[in-house]
Amino acid sequence: MKKCVETRRKLFSFLEGDLDAREERAIQTHLEECPACSESLENLRFTQELLTSLPQLEAPSQIWDSLLRRIREKEKAFVFPLRSLLQKKYLIPPASAAACLVLCFSLLFPRLSSPSPGYTIVKWEELTVAEKDRCEEVFYKPLLVFFKDNEQGF
Amino acid sequence: MSNTPDQLIIEEIKKSKGRDKERAFELIYKKYKDKVFNTAYRIVGDQYFAADITQEVFFTVFKKAEKIRFRSSFKNWLYRVTINFSIDKKRKGFTKKATFSFEDFDKVPENRSFELIDRKSASPEELFGEQEFEGKVQEAIGKLSPKLRAAITLRYNQELSYSEIGKTLKCSVGTVKSRLNRAHRALQPYLIRLIGRYKQDRKTLTNKMLP
Lengths: 154, 211
Prior knowledge:
The structure holds two protein chains of two kinds. By secondary structure, chain A is mainly alpha-helical.
């Protein structure tokens, strides 16, 4: 029984001719007197045969077509040094933050961010009625701030 | 030109541009496409994913040609990349869809996607019908661990020597042998019925042939 276990372990090496002469002879002798072990050897031989006779397939031609398309695209593409930073996922957060900031700023200080030439900020209550009538634009009345044209004057 | 050693072709891919680069790349592709495809197929067990892996492997060759160093041969490197990609794909459990779809392959006439180019021993296929035999053996291989599967594929499908398998899998010849031994023992229970029928059919076939 012990011999069987040992033989089974060495069957593969035996089949591949990897054992030294003494071991090989020992296994040969055991195989002759043990039908179970010689069946094991036969099964092993059949397994090898099954494995080697698996068909070789041809790679489908579509692979080359799509490979060629990919490498041409890669060759054509101009690689900008900071390209990875310009990717959409990296751009979205800072861009939206900047947009929010600009929006808030322009709501709070409509003309401060881009003051038109010739306009000044004056307190609404300091103006006379006539001036108020002639005002071109009034922004943010609650804050009592508005713009008037300097050059034309009131 | 087809006898040019791989190293020279890779050098050409590195140096040249445009059409010349494509031509050099095509040489390497044509030489190894079936080897890569079959290795991937035997490991993942799915032709569409094998096609995906083949494309990925060769795209890597093109992209990383500059970085390929020839400490081992290009062939061993290519097999190693193929095996790593295949095992990776198998491990991820095919979460992503294969880029190659069934529609792509249906354009091939006779509804047979792949042609058999080589049949070394026709006997098992003749005995059981190709589909059944191949399916069963492939299924059994699929039950092995990735390391054993890689060793079996390289040995019996690609017919590499022990030392070449060792270089590819970065292990010693002794390890290769022990993996093959383990793989064989693991395969037995799955193949035993197939082997039984194989033996039986062969016996009847031999008896018929005898006068």
